[in-house]
């Protein structure tokens, strides 16, 4: 590498890191706690009622929809969503009759075995909801979420540029050397280098998947406006009669994809379905295949599948970003490992910032030759 | 180790990176043994941090 390009990489590393560092610290602190959100919700008594007795039959979907609608008779069902981890938890979205989006209505959460209605608390009212809002959008909605996504991308660039500048810096130093007796700056540089390079792959993966998740409204919106819209446009027939039951629709969709589970069902007339076709979206049930979605359009009047398809690669990337960001795919030991990596990343953030704060100030050329060259001007 | 130029610089970081990739991928591919593989491999980079920090903590006699 030429000295000029190394200087360029150092600048990239310094500025991408500095710009995202404040947000990154918030993400580390909130993320560290959110890794254990199930455990915390349980401790706080904030978890959803998902109790049922072994062998108990699920209630028909239609009766769940009826129970949900009683909560707000002016609204109509628009979407049913099924929790992959907890089969007792069903989310039902009720919207205004003519509504195509998901802004004006409300979500109802029901126990799919008992029909027990769970009051959804506002995010600000629960500890996990509060931390999640802070983590995802800094309490500033869509714009904040996009901001955090951009910060995530900067962080990804910072990890890559950090790797590039690591090599030349460590050329004459042993891996993992920590010169704590040599002043604040050198001690922090060494700790930053060791912790940063040791956890680089994890940080890169969690940063990138976090950025992808931040942009999820754009990604699902793109899928909905392109492939899904093209699919529903091929079946433009309007509703002329009564719809079959939601259970028949679900069964038809599941029959199109043997061995799959329901992910969600969108009612005709909303933006994820046709004018007279339900969208039945299914997933597999292993750690991997539960992230692969397929969709069947089911005619609401006949209960017949009109068309079935997979989802495009970018939806799979989005779905797979979840586990690799949350660390929720390998039990409690992986959660603990995730938390430890998060702490290390926090240390890398802070030490990197200290190295920048303690950077050598403008000095005479002779000074720089005496010590600057030896220390390198990392960060 | 450090006297071998760039290849020496990258040997341990590259090994930790490979272990991290294996660990991250393992648990998504299956349960049971796959989980154990994930936990074992992902622990190595963390252990490297801990051991280096422990051995060189200020005030500890040089090893």
Automatic annotation (TrEMBL), chain A:
Keywords: Membrane, Transmembrane, Transmembrane helix
Entry's transmembrane regions: 12-36, 146-170, 191-215, 336-357
Keyword Transmembrane helix among record annotations: yes
Pfam families tied to this protein: PepSY_TM
InterPro entries, per database record: PepSY-ass_TM
Domain of life of the source: Bacteria
Protein name, UniProt field: PepSY domain-containing protein
Species of origin: Azospirillum lipoferum
């Amino acid at each position: 590498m030429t000295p000029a390009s190394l200087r360029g990489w150092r600048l990239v590393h310094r500025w991408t890191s500095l710009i995202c560092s404040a947000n990154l610290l918030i993400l580390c602190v909130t993320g560290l706690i959110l890794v254990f959100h199930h455990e915390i919700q349980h401790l706080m008594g904030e978890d959803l009622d998902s109790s049922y007795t072994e062998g108990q039959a699920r209630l028909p979907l239609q009766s769940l929809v009826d129970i949900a609608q009683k909560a707000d008779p002016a609204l109509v069902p628009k979407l049913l969503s099924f929790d992959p981890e907890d089969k007792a938890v069903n989310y039902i979205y009720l919207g205004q009759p003519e509504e195509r989006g998901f802004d004006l209505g409300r979500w109802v959460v029901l126990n799919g075995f008992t029909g027990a209605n769970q009051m959804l608390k506002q995010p600000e009212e629960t500890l996990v909801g509060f931390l999640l809002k802070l983590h995802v959008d800094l309490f500033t909605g869509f714009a904040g979420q996009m901001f955090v996504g951009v910060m995530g991308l900067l962080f990804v660039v910072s990890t890559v540029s950090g790797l590039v500048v690591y090599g030349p810096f460590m050329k004459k130093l042993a891996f993992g050397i920590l010169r704590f007796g040599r002043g604040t700056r050198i001690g922090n540089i060494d700790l930053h280098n060791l912790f940063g390079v040791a956890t680089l792959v994890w940080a890169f993966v969690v940063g990138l998947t976090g950025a992808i998740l931040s942009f999820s409204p754009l990604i699902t919106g793109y899928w909905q406006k392109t492939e899904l819209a093209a699919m529903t446009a091929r079946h433009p027939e309007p509703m002329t009669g009564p719809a079959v039951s939601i259970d028949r629709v679900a069964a038809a969709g599941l029959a199109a994809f043997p061995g799959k589970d329901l992910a969600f069902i969108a009612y005709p007339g909303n933006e994820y379905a046709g004018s007279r076709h339900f969208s039945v979206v299914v997933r597999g049930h292993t750690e991997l295949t539960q992230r692969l979605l397929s969709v069947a359009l089911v005619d609401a009047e006949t209960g017949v599948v009109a068309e079935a398809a997979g989802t495009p690669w970018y939806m799979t990337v989005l779905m797979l970003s979840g586990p690799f960001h949350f660390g929720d795919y390998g039990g409690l030991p992986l959660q603990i490992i995730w938390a430890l990596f998060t702490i290390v990343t926090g240390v890398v953030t802070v030490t990197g910032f200290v190295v920048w704060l303690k950077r050598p100030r403008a000095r005479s050329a002779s000074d720089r030759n005496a010590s600057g060259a030896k220390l390198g001007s990392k960060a | 180790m450090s006297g071998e130029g760039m290849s020496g610089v990258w040997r341990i970081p590259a090994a930790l990176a490979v272990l991290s990739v294996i660990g991250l991928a393992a648990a998504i591919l299956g349960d049971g043994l796959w989980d154990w593989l994930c936990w074992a491999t992902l622990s190595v980079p963390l252990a490297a941090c801990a051991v280096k920090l422990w051995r060189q903590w200020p005030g500890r006699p040089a090893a």
